Amino acid sequence: xxxxxxxxxxxxxxxxxxxxxxxxxxxxxxxxxxxxxxxxxxxxxxxxxxxxxxxxxxxxxxxxxxxxxxxxxxxxxxxxxxxxxxxxxxxxxxxxxxxxxxxxxxxxxxxxxxxxxxxxxxxxxxxxxxxxxxxxxxx
Length: 139
Ligand code: CMP
What we know:
Blueprint: E1 5-10, H1 12-16, H2 20-29, E2 33-40, H3 44-50, H4 60-67, E3 72-78, H5 82-90, H6 103-107, E4 116-118, H7 122-132
Antiparallel strand pairs: 1-3, 1-4, 2-3
Bound molecules: adenosine-3',5'-cyclic-monophosphate.
Adenosine-3',5'-cyclic-monophosphate is lined by residues 54, 59, 63, 93, 111-112, 114, 117.
């Protein structure tokens, strides 16, 4: 059975563009509960650790340096079927391929700056949520 937890980051480009509020509004309007949230800036080392599964890929260095270049918003979202529903709401990784009405279609500029991250599995959602938030900071 699908879990009810996913993890998201609003990425540096979308934060700098002033889109935190608009993105959170869409997330809430689509039935997600914000169980934890923080504005923070990753170190390059933390970004590399978070995205370890992509280590070795050609975009790894640039992507992790970008993620550490300015503040991000990290959040745990809960909802029935959270991982799949959130991936549907944010759209394809490449905003050029993201469906009309999705967050990446509306707020992303390019694949390396694609507005938001969303967990790709229930297992990774729990790992990613724990990377940022202890259980006592979840509501
Ligand atoms: P995200 O969902 O945060 O997971 C990994 C990120 O790597 C992804 O969003 C993209 O921003 C980035 N990414 C994936 N593929 C590419 C690519 N081919 N070129 C540049 N960045 C990429």
